[in-house]
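Exercise 7. Given the components listed, write out the predicted structure of the assembled complex. Treat all entries as one system.
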Amino acid sequence: MTQQHPPIMGQGIGARLTRKEDERFLRGQGQYVGDLRMPGALDVAFVRSPLAHARVGHIEKPQGYEHLVYTMQDMAGVKPILAASRLAGFRTSVQYPLATEKVRHVGEMVAMCVAPSRARAEDLAAQVWVDYEELPVVADMHDAANGVVPQRIHDEWDGNVFLETRVERGEGQTRQPGTVTVSRKLSTSRQCMMPMEGRGVLCWWDTRMDQLVMVSAAQLPHINRTGLAECLGLDEGRIRVVSPDVGGGFGYKGILLPEEICCAWLAMHMKRPVRWLEDRREHLSANANCREHAYDISVTVNADGRLAGIECDAIVDSGAYSSYPFSACLEAAQIGSILPGPYRMDDFLCRTRSAATNKPPILPYRGVARTGVCFALEVMMDVAARALGVEPYVLRQQSLVRPQDMPYTNITGKTFDSGDYLSCLNRAVAGLNWTQWRARQAQLQPAGARPQRRIGIGLSIFCEQGAHGTSVYHGWGIPMVPGYEQCHVRLTPDGILEVQIGVHSHGQSLETTMAQIANTVLGIEPAHVRVLHGDTATSPYSTGTWGSRCAVMAGGAVGTACEELGMRMKRIAAGLLECPENDLMYVQGGIALKDGALRVSYAQIGHTWYRAPQKLPANVNPGGLALTAGYRMQPDGGTFSYACHACAVEVDTATGFVKLLDYVVCEDGGVLLNPMVVEGQLLGGLAQGIGTALYEEMPFDEQGQPLASTLADYIVPGAGEMPRVRIDHMQTPSPFSKFGQKGIGEGGAIAPPAAIVNAINDALADLGAEVLCVPASPPRVLAAIERAEAAR
Amino acid sequence: MKAVAYELERVSSVNEALSALARDEFYKAIAGGQSLGAMLNLRLAQPECLIDLDAIAELRAATVHGDELVLGSMTTHAAIEDGKVPDVTHGMLAHVAHGIAYRAVRNRGTVGGSLCHADPAADWVSAMAAMGATCEVVGPQGSRRVPAEQFVRSAFEPDLNPGEILVQVRVPRLSAQARWSYRKHCRKTGEFALAIVTGVVDPDRGIERLVLGALDGPVKVHSGPGLYARLADPAERRALLSDPESGLSYERRAWHGDLLASVVADLGAKQ
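Answer.
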């Protein structure tokens, strides 16, 4: 249940507090894996497959350097990565850290080379000779899913599909007289997540602790440790994973990489520190792949103009392996549960397939399946609106879950916690000045005119499940199920509050927002709160940072721990002030009598416990000023933040170039811990969403060769491509989270492709052209126009 | 990736550079390194030795001789952007320089380095051709001059023989009535262009020139009296682009066609 804490001094929940972490980040004093120096450390470079599918024969090490080159044969006893799901029918892939019999994608590692510098390790790698026997390549997910190709990526499988799921809800009575059904094929291209910092790992064996230390740019250090322990056959106590400053994660750094296992093994084998720092080419061509979805979808609107049903056949190109811990099926199977979006409907039918192809494994990227799902459904909503001749927001007004229905359990059984989706939509439409744009449009492109530059407006709306817990994840049966989130708090003798959390902050600003929560509960100054994380030796166990869960789960744990610590501190304060505990309240920096007459500071309380215990009251809690508290949402199905994005674009029909003219976001993250941080998250996500919408694409040829292996070919939007975004906050508290907050970290990356493509299609509507694949690059826009002209 | 090990030799005169390059055909000159640097790290270039032209003062000089600006090949894009070289082009040089990549690249990248890298999408390749500039090359056999429009023979293949370096680019002075237009389409700010169209009209010198750039190979140059009057007709522009010899893809015809219309409008309207 939401608990009310009165703001004490304007630095707590809801304050636009400047970030504590900015001091080091803005001065270039952050410490990333690549900044760390270990005496005697060696650098690793990998021999990677140039082929997408081949049998690996003899591997010839360069003469005289055999001791610096390792293959899987040398790593005997190291187990493969197994990221299975218990969902019925799931086929597991066996991914050895270095390839054994076969390579299954370009960039898969075949051998590991180590030298005093990366350049020399690459020199060695260039001299390793590998006998490959080429095999036919499965580069197309449709071929893989439809079983039209004889070759198998995993020889023991009976096809090339990790998992097929089917969701059927309703009576199937949707298509009746008076209904309108529209059908399209839509797709999102394969992308690469692009954190500023790539992956990196530094490993050594600590002889004093008899322990492997792995410093890795990681979102989920504890999960990494569990995975490493399984692969290396060590008990978890003999592994310490440290995640230092991390320059963006976005899902990519939530994966246990084969590179980590290799480097960990090598550090143990050589008894020397070794490190691998990913370069952008490895990142692009071998590792950070995401997003590739295809939808064959029909949407039916009933005679009342309300969304009645969806039928969908979706395929996700999951690549060659199931990644740890999220598995190869999370992305596709999620489509079956989240495709209905924020809408009410009567019928829902969805088949999903996770296709295996000779491409790098698909990894969850900010928004995970939601970006593709939002694109598919919201573009279809506009297609339907055009078919009906109504404004796109009208169809949505009729179809959204209504505020009076909250909490609302939707057609796939998701319970939306709270919100007013309708107001969100209307505020975004008004915020964009929809009617003014329509007037301008009519002026610029009167009926029958064929201006070269056209204006279009579009919107998209979604809700985003975040912080979903045990009840949602145990059913997936993947290696990781979130339970209670823990926080360990400790007051120092001089009154500093140390807050240890299990999630990791790599852009989320948790060092600030968690301190704000402590301030709200205890009145302690954020400057006196140290938020610590990212070290399995000291941090509480956690599944880590993913699924927009930190504000809710870590925030709930910090709040609970502060409350429990506060009770212990009140008892000491009561002893010092010689008054009943009930007469006390938290004030700025300490505890005071409710009439304000007397007060003790947290420094005095700390001093008393540690350095003047003779003053402690007899009934003091002997556990002292340190404790661990746990938190789970009740119910734990997650919070649902939501947002409507609306934008205006100019489409140049002669060149296919698209320019963003205006962009408005109305979003509801419940109670915002720090609106400035939420805006930062939103804008960062939005830049990525614009990348998905207009720029980013990792094409492969028929031989499975990646065609954008450098940043000259893989186009990421920069500052110059960002529009000035206007943000409108709604704040509907979640009834299920501790402070009414909702997870909102991913939303910025979810809605832009749909909103932007809807605006493009609006601009092209009277030409009959539709873009149905992102990115809406100039060639795709031109092709859409050409197709429409050819169809005339 | 990291570059293979190589020697770096800094030279301080053109003669030193020539004798250094003469020692081995696998030695390579580096002139700013904004493209070569990336190729080294990708191991696409694996020279045994790089001859760094950075310290050759004479290659940084930019002086006017008669009706020509003699631009040292090591002049940076930033120096041109900042007006540190005499302007004989009514601002065209500075305009083009300002649009190259982004400032960090312009601080180190040089005119000569860009031309010798011979990426068809590089700005100077098209702009120098439009301005009618001449490249001065020196080598073991002495010096020779190549019209800028011919200097890039095909993608990444400059008209340079082993041991030769580009020392100067000679840019003719535009007369008082001359006009220019330079337009390009890029996927995003700072990227190499997808299409470039640029033109110069100099009535006093009897010059009308149009260049299509950022193609798969060398620039396409059209010139002659009445060129822009003719191209005022959309049908003429379409014919120019759909010339099978031009080998333009569907997208390129669209992008170059759009730029061509703008350049014609720029240069025609003021006539």
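Discussion: Chain B touches chain A at residues 1-5, 38, 42-43, 185, 187-192, 194, 250-251, 254-255, 257-258 (CB under 8 Å). The CA atoms of residues 22 and 165 of chain B lie 11 Å apart.
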